[in-house]
Amino acid sequence: MVLNILHLYPKEMNLYGDHGNVLALRRRCEWRGIGANIIPCEPGNAFPENVDLIFGGGGQDSGQSRIEQDLLSHGERLRMLIEAGTPALVICGLYQLFGKGFRTSEGQFIKGIGIFPAETTAGSKRLVGNITLSTDAFGEVVGFENHSGLTFLNGCQPFGTVVRGAGNNGKDHTEGAVYNNCIGTYLHGPILPKNPALTDHLIRTALKNKYPDASSLLPLDDAVEEAAHKNAAGRPR
Ligand code: GLN
After folding, report:
1. 38 bridge partner residues
2. What is the pLDDT of residue 215?
3. Which atom of ligand 1 is closest in space to residue 60's alpha carbon?
């Protein structure tokens, strides 16, 4: 079994360890004998034929601006994959652009592909620090946030509820967004190595879509991942 993992804009969209998410996906596949074929997509690249899982990280406003047109050009393909149930995880800068768009503090509007109805506008101060969420599907989720954008969901389902930290906008206690099997979140850190239930959920969903007869995922020894999680949860904001 092999999963084709699309990595959106690894050069521009990579903040605070986001590439570690791809490493976690790859390793947790390989430790179970599942192949992980990572397909980087940079501006100008053709969109790959076969995609089983989508990942994209965060980026500075300038980086978001540089990938804007290319992302819009792939919007329809990405929408079709997500409508078909392909699992996706997008962090911060790409989370904002999987929504309707991001208005920067300079007033520039960077248009998104509208998977989520969410809208984001830069606030006057950055929201920075360690963050803890409670989620129905994955229990406690920990990470690190650093964004100026304030996101309002416009009716979309949140990914989690903020236990400590700011989350989408520092006001309504929501964090991230979910549509079908696509998850958007502000959590860097990176999020996947220290939240293995989330990593396995993405892998399991991709496997079930591609190989309906595949048996359940082999359990792994998560002692190191659990220690990393506990450490992150205990760090000062
Ligand atoms: N540039 C965006 C913001 O500041 C996204 C930042 C990020 O990806 N960490 O809100």
Report:
1. 5
2. 86
3. 1
**C-alpha angle 65-66-71 in degrees, rounded to nearest 5:** 85
Q: In this predicted model, what pLDDT tens digit does every residue of 131-150 receive, in sequence order?
A: 999 999 999 999 999 999 99
Token pair, residue 172, equals 């309504």
Residue 111 CB neighbour total at 10 angstroms = 14
The candidate with the shortest Cα–Cα distance to 3, out of 202, 218, 220, 213, is: 202
- 92 catalytic? Reply is yes
Distance (angstroms) between ligand 1 centre and the Cα of 31 equals: 33
CA of 71 to the centre of ligand 1 (A): 16
Which atom of ligand 1 lies closest to the CA of 126? 4
- Residue 120: the pLDDT is 98
Q: Which residues lie with the beta carbon below 6 Å from any ligand 1 atom?
A: 15, 58-61, 64, 92-93, 146-149
- What number of other Cβ atoms are within 10 A of residue 215's Cβ? 7
| pTM confidence score | 0.98
The reply to whether 188 belongs to the active site is: yes
- Tell me the per-residue pLDDT of 50-90, one tens digit each, with 9 for 90 and over: 999 999 999 999 999 999 999 999 999 999 999 999 999 99
Domains of the chain, start order: 2-234 (3.40.50.880)
